[in-house]
Design goal:
By secondary structure, the protein is α+β, with helices and mostly antiparallel strands. The protein has four helices and four strands. The chain is globular and about 35 Å long. The N terminus is likely disordered.
Length: 129
Amino acid sequence: MKLMTSTFSIIFALLFITNTGYAKDTITAEDIILIFKRSMMHWNVDYDKLEKNRSGAACIPWEIIDKNFVEEKIFTALGYGFNLYDLKIAKKAALEGCERMRRASKIEKTCKCEMLIYNEEVLIKFKNE
């Protein structure tokens, strides 16, 4: 019985360590928004200070996104709009701007432009959602 309890404790500890490590490496929608806003600031644009009905899109290189990217890097291609009539037009403006920047930067094969945010509403969708 003591051996069984010890074995269970070891397995539980390993599972806990594994799950805790995974949680640290998981990229969240908030992480993506943080990168987007930092990327905008790189171009001297403060997303939070844009007029209402604002939107943002970015070309996200999912293959290389990790916690280091979240903490230090920026997106190469961005699109945004503000003072727009509605969500449909806001998406169009942001995605078109992102696509233009993506082509100009010649990064079509490394990322895809995706809608991230409209006003304060996070729109980014993860593949498992």
